[in-house]
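Per-record layout

source: Bacillus carboniphilus
name: Cell wall-binding repeat-containing protein
length: 68
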Amino acid sequence: MEEISPDALTGSALAAKYDAPTLLVDKETVPTFTKNAYSPNQTYSMLFLGGEAVISNQVMNELTNTIK
């Protein structure tokens, strides 16, 4: 991950309000440390910030399909 986007910084305030984690991804991949940050046995709600300019549909689909 080369830089932290403004979306991640803004999203961290929202995450703090709801006592939720902020999980960072690269545009085209989900880093191992992000994959290891959740339990596959829990149910999660996700909010993707930044749109397709900063996160690919492939990454959104990967997260949506592996975190339920």
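summary: Helices lie at 6-17, 32-35, 57-66. The chain has a mean pLDDT of 81.
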